[in-house]
Amino acid sequence: MLELTLMELRQLEYFLAITEEGGFTRAAARAHVAQPGVSVQIRRLERELGQELFDRTGRTIRLTQAGEALLPYARAALRAIDDGRLAVDELAGLLRGRVTVGMLTATPADNLIDLLADFHTAHPRVEVSLREDTSDNLVEGLITGTIDLAWVSTAGRTPDGLTGVVVTDEPLVAVVIPDDPLATRASLPLAALADRVLGSLPPGTGLRAALEQSCATAGFTPRIGFEASAPEVLVKLAARGMGVAVVPAPVAALHPTTTRHIPLTDPEPRGRIELAWRAEGPLSPPAQALITAARRAPTPGHTTHPQASAIAGAHE
Fold first, then answer.
1. What is the pLDDT of residues 290-316, one digit of tens each?
2. Region Disordered: which residues (predicted)?
């Protein structure tokens, strides 16, 4: 086991900064110190360990095998120090620290803004960072610890290594123009779309994964002819005859005059949104407090309009 107690915390902070920023210069800027100072501290750390932590031979800085081995311990050590300080502050009624929140690309953000603003008012000493991305990237950030909690779109089950609560679970439907041969169908087996051009969100999104997994179960690979980062854009493209859009039912219901939407079966593809966080390892007090607040708040993107009670653009 690595003797982390022999290392200065500052060296571990620099090591982590270089890893996350991808270079010594950016790490120095993040730490607000001169770049030579960072290099000196990393050399001392490498001498202490007897191993080089970074491969400096290429154009980009990469972790060596020893660096990869050290990384989870460095994160754990720094997180433990931060959590200890935060626990003491919490006992004194002074919650402070930093929390990073992930949100889906193209999600209407009014409710999320309200949530974060209210949290800031309640805990002004906590720095809140917001990251917008696709579900795959947000899940990776949660697992690696660069994100504390996030709203992610999943294809039927919580990703390994995470836990959370389901906040929406909606069927996907086929959206076609009114004179399409499918428009009069009351429901549609998914295999009926095998030869049709489909519109979907891009790869890396929860809805795309849900569609591809369901099509695989039905025995075919979907022909994706057009993509957009927001489901409503897919509906509008389908309304212009581009093909069949596959989107959440509440989104399709927003356009009843220009399109028809048909429930899909055998299997029924579904998209769901979860508020997720790491299943293992301690959560910082700020992250725990924000998770508690988020579970009580409306889902980001929700609206009270009866035709749009689900998240119109939050299924990345």
1. 888 887 766 554 433 322 333 333 444
2. 296-316
- 188-189 and 149-154 as β-strands: parallel, antiparallel, unpaired? unpaired
Out of 3.40.605.10, 3.40.190.10, 3.40.50.11270, 3.90.580.10, the CATH code matching 97-167+272-308 is: 3.40.190.10
Distance of CA 56 to the CA centre of its chain: 31
Report residue 217 as tokens: 């179960």
The CA distances from residue 129 to 17, 117, 285, in Å, are 17, 12, 15
- Report d(CA 15, CA 27) in Å as an integer: 9
Share of the chain above pLDDT 90, in %: 41
Dump pLDDT digits (tens) for 105-132.
766 556 778 888 888 888 888 899 989 8
Identify the three-state secondary structure at position 132: strand
Does domain 4-89 correspond to CATH entry 1.10.10.10? yes
Q: Read off the pLDDT of residues 23-67 as tens digits, 9 standing for 90 and up.
A: 898 888 888 889 998 999 999 999 989 999 999 888 888 999 999
pTM of the model: 0.61
| Average pLDDT score over the chain | 84
User: Whole-angstrom Cα distance, residue 247 to residue 211?
Assistant: 9
User: Hey, what are 113's tokens?
Assistant: 């803004």
* CATH T-level topology, domain 170-271: D-Maltodextrin-Binding Protein; domain 2 (3.40.190)
Place of tokens 């603003």: 117
According to CATH, where is 3.40.190.10 located in the chain? 97-167+272-308, 170-271
**Whole-angstrom distance, CA of residue 182 vs CA of residue 309:** 26
